Amino acid sequence: MKAIKFIASLFVSATVLSTAIAGNAPKKAAEGLAVDTKGSKIHWLAKKVTGQHEGFISISNGNLSVAKGKVTGGTFTIDMKSIVCTDITDAGYNQKFISHITTGDFFEVEKFPTATFKITKVAGSNITGDLTLHGITKSITFPATITSAAGKVTATAKIPVDRTDFNIKYGSKKFFESIGDKAIDDVFNLDVTLVAGK
């Protein structure tokens, strides 16, 4: 009888120990995937009273953290000097436009050659992160669509950005009420496609 009780005691102790070990076992770390800078792209669109302009800007590097097929974090860097405009066909005017938006009136790229976005929270389809632009960091939240296939993760999102939050005031009615039809919308839109994989 004593032998049976002793064996039962050993069994209970082993069960408790294995449960404790399992509970303290480290969780599987998120997998880091490098951003495919050639497969990723950002399309920008900015509007004004008399029309609009659009183009592209390049992602220079980045990574996404993925656990169980879901994005849990990540960061990417935008090359502000790579901005191009695709709707102005006159070469001279196009160059003049790009020269203007890269000066201190807008993005001041010589002083701030990059912008960054760092994911701080993922809740369902909503992504929250810190956008650093023009030397200023603001938290923004937007919906995103994320898919995973063949070892690659693709995230797409349409992100509205209020430039005045980043001290870019040129042509803003918020600061120049009498500007009339020369006003430029405070919000510009980024249509982002981010591809990451091993």
UniProtKB/TrEMBL annotation:
<protein>
    <submittedName>
        <fullName>YceI family protein</fullName>
    </submittedName>
</protein>
<dbReference type="Pfam" id="PF04264">
    <property type="entry name" value="YceI"/>
</dbReference>
<feature type="domain" description="Lipid/polyisoprenoid-binding YceI-like">
    <location>
        <begin position="32"/>
        <end position="197"/>
    </location>
</feature>
<dbReference type="InterPro" id="IPR007372">
    <property type="entry name" value="Lipid/polyisoprenoid-bd_YceI"/>
</dbReference>
<keyword id="KW-0732">Signal</keyword>
<feature type="signal peptide">
    <location>
        <begin position="1"/>
        <end position="22"/>
    </location>
</feature>
<dbReference type="InterPro" id="IPR036761">
    <property type="entry name" value="TTHA0802/YceI-like_sf"/>
</dbReference>
